[in-house]
Amino acid sequence: MERWAMLAACVLLCCSCTMVTAIQRADMFPYGTLNGDSVLREGDDETSKVLSLPRPLYFFNSPFSQLYVATNGIISAQDLPMEKQYVDDGFPTDFPVVAPFLADIDTSGGRGQIYYRVTEIPSVLNRVAQEVHRGFPDANFTPTHAVVATWENVPAYEEQTRPPSPPNKVNTFQAVIGYDETDSYVLFLYPEGGLNFFGTLPKESYNVEIELPARVGFSRGEIPNILTSRNEGPYYSVTSNEQSVKNLYQFGNSGIPGLWLFHTGNRYSFDNIVPASIKGPVSTPPTVGYDSHMGTTTPDYDEFEEYVENTFDPNTQEREDDYPLTGRNPEFQPAPADGDRSRFLLPQNHYGSDNIPLTFEPVYGFEPPERQYASPNPPQTVAEGGAQQPQEQQPQLPLKVVNVHTPHRNAPPLSPGAHVVSVDEEQVNFDTGVIQYTTENKETCARFLQQCSQNAFCTDYATGFCCHCQPGFYGNGRQCLPDGAPQRVSGKVSGTVYVGSTPVSLNNIDLHAYIVVGDGRAYTAISEVPEPVGWALMPVAPIGELFGWLFALELQNSQAGFKLTGAEFSRHAEVVFYPGNQRLSIIQTARGLDDHNHLTVGTVISGSVPFLPPGAEVTMEPFKETYQYYPSVATSTSIREYSVVTADRGSESFSFQLKQNITYRDCPHNNQAATPETLQILMERVFVMFVKEERILRYAITNKISPVRAPGPELHNPCYAGTHDCDTTAQCIPLEDLAFQCQCATGYTGDGHNCYDIDECAEGLGTCGDNSECVNLPGSHRCHCQRGYKFGYDGRTCVDIDECSSSPCHINARCINGLGSFQCQCQLGFFGNGFYCSQQEDRPERLKTRCEHHRDSVKTTSADGYPITGVYKPQCDAEGQYLPQQCHGSTGYCWCVDSRGEERAGTRTPPGAAPVDCDRPDQPEHVKTHCEHHRDSVKTTSADGYPIVGAYVPQCDAEGQYLSQQCHGSTGYCWCVDSRGEERAGTRTPPGAAPVDCDRPGLPERAKTHCEHHRDSVKTTSADGYPITGVYKPQCDAEGQYLPQQCHGSTGYCWCVDSRGEERAGTRTPPGAAPVDCDRPVQPEHLKTHCEHHRDSVKTTSADGYPITGVYKPQCDAEGQYLPQQCHGSTGYCWCVDSRGEERAGTRTPPGAAPVDCDRPVAVTPTERPESMCERWRASLIEHYGGKPGPQQYVPQCEPDGEFSPVQCYGETNYCWCVDQNGRMVPGTKSDDAVKPACISSVPPPTVRPTSRPDVTPPINTGITLLYAQGQKIGALPLNGTRLDESRSKTLLALHGSIVVGIAYDCKENQVYWTDLSARSINRASMVSGAEPEVLINTNLVSPEGLAVDVKRRLMFWVDSTPDVIERANLDGSGRRTLFDTDLVNPRAIIVVSSTGTLYWTDWNREAPKIESSSVDGQNRQVIVSDGIGLPNALTYDSATEQICWADAGTKRLECISSDGSGRRVIHANLNYPFSMVYYRNHFYYTDWRRDGVIAVNKHRSLFTDEYLPEQRSHLYGITVATTHCLPGSH
Hints:
Elements: H1 2-16, E1 38-39, E2 51-59, E3 62-70, E4 74-76, E5 97-102, E6 113-119, H2 122-135, E7 145-155, E8 170-179, E9 183-189, E10 199-200, E11 212-213, E12 215-219, E13 222-225, E14 229-232, E15 235-237, H3 242-250, E16 259-266, E17 274-275, E18 348-349, E19 381-382, E20 388-389, E21 399-400, E22 428-429, E23 434-435, H4 445-448, E24 456-460, E25 465-469, E26 473-475, E27 480-482, E28 487-499, E29 502-516, E30 521-526, H5 531-536, H6 542-550, E31 553-554, H7 562-565, E32 568-578, E33 583-593, E34 599-609, E35 617-619, E36 623-630, E37 633-646, E38 650-664, E39 678-691, E40 696-706, H8 718-721, E41 730-734, E42 740-744, E43 748-750, E44 755-757, E45 772-777, E46 780-785, E47 789-791, E48 798-800, E49 813-818, E50 821-826, E51 830-832, E52 837-839, H9 850-857, E53 885-887, E54 894-896, H10 930-937, E55 965-967, E56 974-976, H11 1010-1017, E57 1045-1047, E58 1054-1056, H12 1090-1097, E59 1125-1127, E60 1134-1136, H13 1173-1184, E61 1207-1209, E62 1215-1218, E63 1231-1232, E64 1264-1269, E65 1273-1280, E66 1283-1284, E67 1290-1294, ...
Parallel strand pairs: 28-34, 31-40
Antiparallel strand pairs: 1-6, 2-3, 3-4, 4-5, 5-12, 6-7, 7-8, 8-9, 9-16, 10-11, 12-15, 13-14, 16-17, 18-21, 19-20, 22-23, 24-25, 26-27, 28-29, 29-30, 30-40, 32-33, 32-38, 33-34, 35-37, 36-37, 36-39, 37-38, 39-40, 41-42, 43-44, 45-46, 47-48, 49-50, 51-52, 53-54, 55-56, 57-58, 59-60, 61-62, ...
């Protein structure tokens, strides 16, 4: 009897499935920025910019040409008044309104989005037309435009005094207005689960808690009247009370619940709104009355008022005793592969354990991450009999989900509508409640391969299939990551956290994590955290511990979490704080890998946390935690202790209990895959911090996972101890004892200590098939289907998209699908391009087609009327479509194209060859060969359609392989190539010569000669295929030797060379001159003169063979002496020189002017200064630009004395760099942001006579004095306590002609040391009156900058930023040696901590800035900071906290960090332009280039406390502290 009762229940269940389902979010009209929507700015009362309509919209019977979208759920035809004038009132309104949900909505703080657009897309118009024709069968309506407005996840307005609403109290709805020349129709869409609040409190409630139901309907607004000025217009209401609002998504007037349709306007006659009326299984109530009072027509739903809504009660939560072991997140659960939402997935008991409850919720689909939402319906479990149980019932035992698989990300969305479930009695086991599937339904690799990662293989087992990662990758087979590569995580954090009794909302703030898999370091950062909760969440390190468990460093016989979970799982954790018993829930849901292989995790935090005062510091000791593993779930329980240090209460200890479970999908078919029962994770170096200025919460944890046992000897191996030196993208492989090996991660190459990403796409290692493109990723790659294709059922093969299935063509057109494309053709009797068709008799002027636009945009004549040869012009047919066969009028090549004008691969034929039949159906396109890729990548026309002359285009055969003989169409040279297209040495022949027989077997291949290497290394085309003009290419003979005479093809100069290709002096001849006989025996070469040395040292081509334009090259006579008159070949300026080549003042003449007679003496005014190199270059470039250089053109910037300004920029742009005294760019200084590089001039300003004697005049009666460098002097600024004593400041030492940069102080000998950039020296002087400077080092220095003195070891250290070295010497200059001369680009600041013997320095390389350290003898070099810095100029040591601190002119921050890289914190986040810095008594003093002064910052208060601006305003450089006694830590 029970058996038949159960069967009857199943039949009834199936019958109920025939009812029409409500619309889902996927059924709404497409919206979002990717669909061209604008986004309304967030706020409580916002109105969009005017939305201009292409043609008028008739609303009621009035035309409107513009619309506005408002926050409060309405669309209006006129700009809206303040919301208080309408948001609390019913209909009618004073202005025209379309109201899908008029209520007091507030999107402040990023809560929800509102999108809107006007569109003419055929698929949208076709759908509007179909809905209108269903609801109004007699309507003659073809929409020409549609307005789509979408309110997504928008909440109601809340006063600050009220407690916040639950985060799921948000609504989603949509309004679509379709119209043509005469009529308008409106669709309202309310998806299932989209309405979670049904009214809002009035703005002026006067403390009366009365909720106003949302108003839905239409109002014409006031109508002008001659007699009464204005009359109230008609209106129509859909809702009247809260229940009628709830009915919006439960019913509809279109036959589908949640979809409402109305006729809203007509050009000629229209009295009021007309609703659609379609009968269906679930539709609107059978009879709807209309109240005609005041012109309204409001449906009456009173007889449905007893409808009970399924609402979620947040109070029904499990007690602590019944702590849940599953996170019920609908975004994680799998869906049936066949898309059938009506088939329940009935779990069965998989193992016996009464104390591990586990439940699964049947959910039937995924939504994209940007469209995910929480269902308002309560989750339910499935009991053994198949009956649904309410949530508050005791959870069931752990259950196994049978036949579960995930739809592929490219699978089509599930269609709405009825689903019928057929139940076969023979397949139902009524004893267990589990549906048994026959072998016909068994999941196999052949059917479900798409569920496996592209880096996995699939294995069939007796009961189903499993995915396994390929060697070199790890994961659960469904998602696989490359071994050893660092991993990134991104996601959002939301929820409400009570800090004490204060609620704080987290509104989708960003979370990012970075994990160094090679040693288990996991860094987590949550941004934009409100301050109260930021401090309070510091102890909640479990938020970031998840990522440490996923990617922990694996010791022997263990595995990290990602190998079990893959990238789809749910984690539920509960934290109970003691002694206050505050409870915090953490739910983290992983939603897969994004396009960059980064894990995407959403985090929801809710509950209470203890209050922590601002400025508190939290420390947590290392600890161990044991994880227990069961099928599809991992759990752990632990007690943690932490300390809180505050200024008021000192250090206090607290604790919390953590319970957590992580549920995921394992593969039940592989019985050999044993899951460990327990594993232990060791969390070392736990670091937490909240950065108040940036509102960033940071967690940093080092994680190791191992079996639960005492640590073995393997922990001493550097791989397990984390002391190895392998690259972050490498694996450390332990060997015997302490030996190890570094092996680059999968997808990387190198020696393991330095690894570089392999571009699988460029090197042909990708796995992408036909009709797909390869996209490189760090350590891997992904395949992307070409336009017009999508992934097939296996998830790897690209198949054609049937565009016609989405009705892209006009309603009166026929769609023809093709491979990768489609065509629209107007039906018989209609005319147009297929996207717009009209009848012949009112044939309008049609819009230009794509082909016609393309054809008409090609320029065939220049601006001067000259014809442009070699331009390809598309050919179009009478309908404006591309002719199937296109031919190039100049080259004679022909090829076939698709409907978009794109060339069909394999159809190109050379001039004279028989063309391909382009009307023949497309053959399957083969993957392009290397030759075809090479050929097609060469650009032969510029972006403007101009032909690019001189470009070499490879020639390929019919199979796509390189022709054995290649010829350059412009130069006429020919040569043989191998199968890779590489030239075969000795086969190149000049124009007109008989070519080598490239097909002759056994053609001897000799090694390339020096000349051939030189010739082949010269680039004649850029990476984009453009020819590089002016390049000199050596000429080699048939044997590969240099031809005795070489000529430059662009300039016409010729010269003789020796066997090594070196120019023979005295043989160069200008264009047109008779060349020297290079076969004549070489005369003994005389020693080069000064002029010849000067001339031959000038580089006219770069290292890559590019010509260097604008270079001045001296002219020498036959004897090698300077010609008396010199001229610049580029600018045309001429001048006279003396015997040393120095310009004679007053002799320079511009282009075209009569030159000065250089043999006649010239009188020079004694005060006249000749033009400098900078000024000459500047004048010539300004003339070159026609006197008006553009804002992005480079013009040299010169100082008043004529020298180059140390910073040079392109016009008004931010692209700047540093130069030396000759105007040459300093490598590594290029900048393309708002902060210009910190360049130091190497030329001192002119000295003003008379100069004072350079001796020391120290301030008197001072204990602590700041010494600062200011160009030609060292200044002294005494301190009064920690205040700057400006009244006693003075010049310590005047150094005319110097540029003092680095400065240091020896407290034992009371001496000051400095670097002089102008004199290229290091100097010192005693701090006593009358002392004179002493030069210590003045050789082999170029740009000495930062300087440090080790008082204890009597050493000094400095950086030289031009040769990029760090050196050291004894304090007297002896014992000099280089510490580092590699991996430095722009070293600047340097300090030494005498107490520890450690050296620290900064390198402000604009591409990779860093801060490094080493011992004072150059050992143990390591990078301390490389992330989050920009221009680290200043560096100092905080002796109180033993931290290194730096000031960054790029990020504007002052930060500190411990020597091991932990404890990083921001002291101040808004500096100006710091250059150098020193620390003293809880204060930082730094020199600032923006203020040209010394500024003081209080460390604890993070505030500017003092400022000193010298009378002489110029840049200040180094700064140090001089004391009468040595400070602690300095010796």
